[in-house]
């Protein structure tokens, strides 16, 4: 496909997304109906669609409409390109710019503050209040693609081994600036999950923020650790790899845990996956990686940024209040609870901790880790709480 034909395809896919489909569904439907497209076309299309979704507000404002076409015109204009060069109507290119579209671009109308940072109008004041001086830089980060990070499984080899194994498959990586064992993928990220280094468990895909969070945890030798909201087991796997402890994984949605055993086998670690009925208060360390807005990771899931609402925020908040209480009930006296989210909103973080400690005086909040979305990680929040003896 020519670059212009890819833009035309992106317009179709974006129109689908703006109607009622998720980006993944719209892309896979397009792929099924476009057998002529090669893997490079599909990858380029995906990048165009996600780039436009991350910058939906500013692209729609620049392009003159919240449509697939408006977004793609805006994307080219925002990158300093000339949309008229791409929108020619020739071959499989999108139709030439209309007079109205050309006039809108020429007028270069100003864009609102919230569109400039690509956040929904209602959210921008909340974001500023919560993030303060970090608000603009964090919002700007979410407008760009996220790096892919790998965690080297210590049980399977060293960082040097991982770098060499990946290089043998033309995947080059660089060391994270602060987190040991964390590698940023510089070339061929799409090959990682097909690589021998991944298949053999030498590396696992995991954002730097989660790796940093696990590295800050205190897990005594021989401790019983419960990952109460284990999902696919990202934190549980990292803990099992890095600490000498017994790890149990649980999730209210049991189907989410189905990959934990194969992932643990690949990584060479042991994780016991259990259901709620067998849990008791025997754990030295419990992790509550609570369901949340995911606002610290929205560059990976930009649709969620635009579909987020005040109602969703308060629903998450209610759920988080329940999850922290339930998770805490499995910690033994003198034990530790780590509450964490990948959100940057105080409502999902500090407010949950404050309410919990006010209602449960046997618990004391200790250290807090707070990461903003940046060049070196997604946004993340972790609070260590200890239970009195
Ligand atoms: C942020 S995700 C966990 C991600 C996972 N820890 C990881 O590192 O890959 C939150 C998880 O909490 C689970 N969850 C939601 N409500 C829960 C509850 N009441 N009890 C336990 N788990 C719950 C969800 O099913 C979801 O898998």
From TrEMBL:
Transmembrane regions: none
Residues binding S-adenosyl-L-methionine, per UniProt: 251, 289
Biological process annotations from GO: RNA methylation
Gene3D superfamilies in the record: Vaccinia Virus protein VP39 (3.40.50.150)
Xref: InterPro entries: MeTrfase_RsmB-F_NOP2_cat (IPR049560), MeTrfase_RsmB-F_NOP2_dom (IPR001678), RCMT (IPR023267), RsmB-like_ferredoxin (IPR054728), SAM-dependent_MTases_sf (IPR029063)
Keyword list, A-Z: Methyltransferase, RNA-binding, S-adenosyl-L-methionine, Transferase
The keyword Methyltransferase belongs to this UniProt entry's keyword annotation: yes
EC annotation from Swiss-Prot or TrEMBL: 2.1.1.176
SAM-dependent MTase RsmB/NOP-type domain boundaries: 138-389
Recorded GO MF terms: RNA binding; RNA methyltransferase activity
List of catalytic residues: 342 (nucleophile)
Enzymatic class: transferase
Similarity comment text for this entry: Belongs to the class I-like SAM-binding methyltransferase superfamily. RsmB/NOP family.
Protein name, as recorded: 16S rRNA (Cytosine967-C5)-methyltransferase
Organism: Yoonia ponticola
């Amino acid at each position: 496909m020519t670059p212009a034909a890819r833009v035309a395809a992106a317009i179709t896919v974006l129109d689908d997304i703006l109607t009622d489909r998720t980006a993944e569904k719209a892309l896979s439907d397009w792929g099924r109906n476009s057998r002529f497209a090669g893997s490079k076309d599909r990858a380029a299309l995906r990048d165009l669609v996600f780039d436009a979704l991350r910058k939906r507000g500013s692209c729609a404002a620049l392009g003159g409409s919240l449509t697939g076409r408006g977004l793609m015109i805006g994307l080219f204009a925002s990158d300093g390109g000339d949309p008229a060069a791409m929108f020619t109507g020739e071959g499989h290119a999108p139709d030439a710019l209309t007079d109205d579209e050309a006039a809108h671009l020429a007028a270069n109308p100003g864009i609102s503050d919230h569109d400039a940072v690509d956040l929904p109008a209602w959210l921008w004041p909340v974001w500023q209040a919560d993030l303060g001086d970090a608000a603009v830089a964090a919002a700007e980060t979410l407008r760009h693609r996220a790096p892919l990070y790998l965690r080297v499984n210590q049980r399977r080899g060293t960082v040097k081994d991982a770098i060499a194994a990946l290089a043998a498959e033309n995947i080059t990586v660089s060391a994270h600036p602060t987190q040991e064992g964390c590698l940023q993928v510089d070339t061929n990220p799409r090959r990682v999950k097909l690589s021998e280094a991944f298949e053999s468990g030498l590396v696992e895909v995991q954002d730097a923020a989660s790796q940093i969070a696990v590295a800050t945890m205190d897990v005594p030798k021989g401790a019983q650790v419960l990952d109460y909201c284990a999902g696919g087991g990202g934190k549980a796997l990292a803990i099992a790899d890095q600490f000498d402890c017994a790890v149990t994984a649980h999730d209210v949605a049991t189907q989410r845990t189905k990959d934990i055993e194969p992932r643990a086998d690949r990584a060479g670690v042991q994780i016991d996956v259990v259901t709620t009925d067998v849990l008791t208060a025997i754990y030295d360390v419990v992790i509550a990686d609570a369901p949340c807005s995911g606002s610290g990771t929205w560059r990976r899931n930009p649709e969620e940024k635009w579909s987020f609402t005040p109602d969703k925020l308060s629903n998450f908040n209610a759920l988080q209040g329940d999850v922290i209480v339930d998770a805490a009930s499995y910690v033994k006296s003198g034990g530790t609870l780590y509450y964490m989210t990948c959100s940057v909103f105080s409502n999902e973080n500090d407010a949950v901790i404050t309410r919990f400690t006010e209602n449960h005086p046997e618990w004391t909040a200790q250290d807090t880790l707070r990461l903003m979305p940046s060049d070196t990680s997604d946004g993340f929040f972790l609070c260590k709480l200890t239970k009195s003896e």
